[in-house]
TrEMBL record:
Residues 267-321 are annotated as: Disordered. Its main location: membrane. The gene is lgt. The keyword Cell wall biogenesis/degradation does not apply. A 1,2-diacyl-sn-glycero-3-phospho-(1'-sn-glycerol) binds at R142. Belongs to the Lgt family. One of its GO terms (molecular function) is transferase activity. NCBIfam families: lgt (TIGR00544). Pathway: Protein modification; lipoprotein biosynthesis (diacylglyceryl transfer). Residues 271-300 have a biased composition (Low complexity). The chain crosses the membrane at residues 20-41, 53-75, 95-116, 123-141, 181-198, 210-228, 240-258. This is Phosphatidylglycerol--prolipoprotein diacylglyceryl transferase. Pfam families: LGT.
Length: 321
């Protein structure tokens, strides 16, 4: 039966700019990272942090996240790379698709922790700032699966069905399927908006905005994963990622409850250096130069007290009419 409407798949996942190949999957990942850093930076500054801090820490978080996402995919789908007839070198071809969000978040968090530690910033505060940006990045990144014609759902004749081209080498059978990439993309946009709203409404802090993002995402991932037909390991009748979603959801909810009781409200200071800059600029304390002059004079020994007094007197406005 001919369908009245469907979502077409691109004929190729690569666009050539002269001799340079621009792969759709990588392009979506890159755009997603930029959006996450941009939005995270705005939220960080609004919470009292410095401009550029989110980008500086992302230099650590993004590479760790990419490695973690790829490792999770390769480990959980090892038969695609390390069985007879397969080439293990393909495990390094990240542009062909295959990033596990669970591994990306886990190792990405490690990279972010390193970056935060170098700046004296609490990781939970940083995670709260970038949480909705990560959800938007996932929404954009899922379109990379559309370019690669992968990770679609069960067959369907719905008007928004995704048309897949047959490819024996890739194990694809021509037909129309549930566009699970689109379902997850829309779900992630909803999660991002939910986190932004809840953060404004309830002043979430100490990692709770990030925990809300994780909990909300796993709910959607569970039912979307249930629709997918690509090969996956099963445990007690459920796909491995379904079980991962359940475990991560429970952990996120537990963190929300425990954190709300232990550390209610939001952090007053998210970046100590930014708070110090603000204090100096507002006149709450002496300017750094005045502090240095007074300190040098006091440390000079003989006559040091007189010199320090002179510095202080010069700094005070004249009392004469």
């Amino acid at each position: 039966m001919d369908l009245l409407a469907y979502i077409p798949s691109p004929s190729s996942g690569v666009i050539y700019l002269g001799p340079v190949p621009l792969r759709g999957y990588a392009f979506c990942i890159i755009i997603g990272v930029f959006v996450a850093v941009w939005l995270g930076g705005r939220r960080w500054v609004a919470r009292g942090g410095r401009v550029g801090t989110v980008a500086d820490i992302a230099v650590w978080a993004v590479p760790f996240g990419l490695v973690g996402g790829r490792l999770y995919h390769v480990i959980t789908d090892y038969e695609l790379y390390f069985t007879d007839g397969r080439d293990w070198v393909d495990a390094f071809k990240i542009w062909q698709g295959g990033l596990g969000i669970w591994g990306a978040i886990a190792l990405g968090a490690l990279g972010a922790w390193i970056g935060c530690r170098r700046r004296g910033i609490p990781l939970p505060a940083y995670a709260d700032a970038i949480a909705p940006g990560i959800a938007f990045a996932q929404a954009i990144g899922r379109w990379g699966n559309w370019f690669n014609q992968e990770l679609y759902g069960k067959e369907t004749t719905l008007p928004w069905a995704l048309k897949i081209d047959g490819d024996a080498d890739a194990g694809r059978v021509a037909g129309t399927y549930h566009p699970t990439f689109l379902y997850e993309s829309l779900w992630c946009i909803g999660v991002a908006l939910l986190v932004i709203w809840a953060d404004r409404r309830f002043k979430l802090g100490h990692g709770r905005a990030f925990a809300l993002y994780v909990a909300a995402y796993t709910v959607g991932r569970f039912w979307i994963e249930y629709l997918r037909v690509d090969d996956a390991h099963h445990v007690l009748g459920l796909r491995l990622n379904n079980w991962t979603s359940v475990v991560v959801f429970l952990a996120a909810v537990a963190y929300l409850v425990i954190s709300a009781k232990k550390s209610p409200g939001r952090e007053e200071v998210v970046e100590p250096a930014a708070a110090e800059d603000g204090a100096d600029a507002s006149g709450d304390g002496p300017a750094p130069a005045a502090k240095t002059e007074a300190g040098d004079a006091a440390a000079a020994g003989t006559g040091g007290a007189d010199e320090a007094g002179a510095v202080a007197a010069e700094a005070e406005p004249s009392k004469k009419p």
